[in-house]
Amino acid sequence: MFVPKTAKTSRSIAVEPTLNGYLQKGVDNVMRHRLKNIGLDLSDQSRNTEMALQGSKGGFNPFVTIDLASASDSISIEVVRLLLPPKWFSFLDHLRSPSYFYNGNNTRYQKFTTMGNGFCFPLQTMIFAAIIHGIHKKYGLNCRASVDYRVYGDDIIVRQNLALELIQVLKYLGFRTNPDKTFIFGPFRESCGKDWWVIVTGK
């Protein structure tokens, strides 16, 4: 079905089968609990907005905000297979809807989850967090969520020195940056619906 996205466009969403949706929400709860254990609380957007505020203040290697275009529609099957342990991939693959029915036609999805999938949000959060950890590890850097980065769905906050490489890795994996909502340079930052533009003046 379709729901309004803006005044001019609509967004397609999937109406998941009832029993699938019930099981997917169970997985959603488990994923949210695991993510909270590493500092990514998907019930609290305030940490994202606070980190965006810090980034707006500038300084050496500030936090920057990155937003992706249609992220949930861009999670390919092979990306999930690549990043998840085989048993987890198989488990989630059995719970997701592999195809959709529209205008009398049954068509297979090329993506792993739909907008209506019950575990879509924590899954994409986990994928982006894993990518950020991988980039830190490449340079021998330790990183902790809520201290060195934040991910809330497709709202991403990292240090400026890693941002361009992160965008390139995301592009390689099929994710497109939204240039209208990504702020790497200058004082403006935006995350989870909060905008910041801090003007720092000297004495």
Report on the architecture of this protein.
With 203 residues, the chain is of the alpha+beta class. It is 39% helix and 19% strand. The protein contains 6 helices and 10 strands. The chain has helices spanning 18-37, 46-56, 77-83, 86-95, 120-138, 160-172; strands spanning 2-4, 10-12, 63-69, 99-102, 105-108, 150-152, 155-159, 176-177, 188-191, 194-197. The strands form 4 sheets. A 4-stranded antiparallel β-sheet has the order 6-7-3-8. Strands 1-2 form a two-stranded antiparallel sheet. A two-stranded antiparallel ribbon has the order 4-5. The protein is globular, with a radius of gyration of 18 Å.
Specify Rg, calculated over alpha carbons: 18 Å
Q: How many helical stretches?
A: 6
**Which structural class is indicated by helix and strand composition?**
alpha+beta
User: Largest sheet, order of strands side by side?
Assistant: 6-7-3-8
Quick check: average pLDDT?
92
- The secondary-structure element order is EEHHEHHEEHEEHEEE
Task: Tell me the β content.
Answer: 15-25%
The N- to C-terminal Cα distance equals 57 Å
List the helices and strands and how they pair.
Layout: E1 2-4, E2 10-12, H1 18-37, H2 46-56, E3 63-69, H3 77-83, H4 86-95, E4 99-102, E5 105-108, H5 120-138, E6 150-152, E7 155-159, H6 160-172, E8 176-177, E9 188-191, E10 194-197
Antiparallel strand pairs: 1-2, 3-7, 3-8, 4-5, 6-7, 9-10
Helix pairs in contact: 1-5, 5-6
TL;DR of this structure?
This protein has 203 residues and is an alpha+beta fold.
Features:
alpha+beta, four-stranded antiparallel sheet, 10 strands, 39% helix, 19% strand
